[in-house]
Specification:
Elements (H helix, E strand, L loop, with lengths): L2 H6 L1 H9 L3 E5 L4 E5 L8 H22 L10 H6 L2 E12 L2 E10 L2 E10 L4 E2 L5 E5 L1 H26 L1
Antiparallel strand pairs: 1-2, 3-4, 4-5, 5-6, 5-7
Helix pairs in contact: 2-3
Length: 163
């Protein structure tokens, strides 16, 4: 078990491990409940932690069944192989056990902005931190002027702030 969970959530982990939990499925309402031997429903905080553990398990199983997702910036060889142009590594930052990668690139007429965070200790991408925006040329063209104005304004604001 991951040390960070056992330290932060020991009481909830105890609740999960000290009881026999059962999933009750209501076929009429199409909903589920997690209950203990006495039929008491699991509390929200413990349920949240259970889902965190289940999500990590699902991610690991997906990586076994399907190809593991990329967890590093796109390297030069892959850029050539995948016909990726205009590649920019916006950020690659490590903080403790986490690495965040933000990239922008064009491939096959689609401009992509993507970011993801990897738990380097568990070697898993956090699904909730993963996002991508795909733009064709006419969508990208629509944001060029506002993006330029944004950069100019904030660059000037930042320079004024430094003074």
């Amino acid at each position: 078990m991951d040390q960070r969970y056992s330290e932060l959530y020991q009481d909830r982990i105890n609740k999960l491990s000290e009881r026999n939990w059962k999933i009750e499925f209501d076929t009429e309402k199409l909903c589920v409940k997690v209950v203990n031997e006495q039929g008491e429903e699991i509390d929200f905080q413990t349920l949240e932690l259970l889902f965190t553990f289940l999500q990590e398990d699902i991610t690991r199983k997906n990586e076994k069944v399907y190809k593991a997702p990329r967890k590093t910036p796109i390297d030069e060889f892959s850029r050539k192989r995948l016909d990726i142009t205009n590649y920019v590594l916006l950020e690659e930052e490590e903080r403790g056990n986490y690495r965040t990668v933000k990239e922008a690139y064009e491939s096959n007429g689609i401009f992509t902005l993507s970011d993801f965070t990897v738990d380097t200790k568990e070697n898993l991408i956090h699904p909730e931190s993963q996002s991508a925006i795909y733009l064709n040329w006419w969508e990208a063209e629509k944001i060029l002027e506002p993006l330029k104005e944004f950069v100019e304004f904030n660059k000037k604001f930042s320079e004024d702030y430094k003074k």
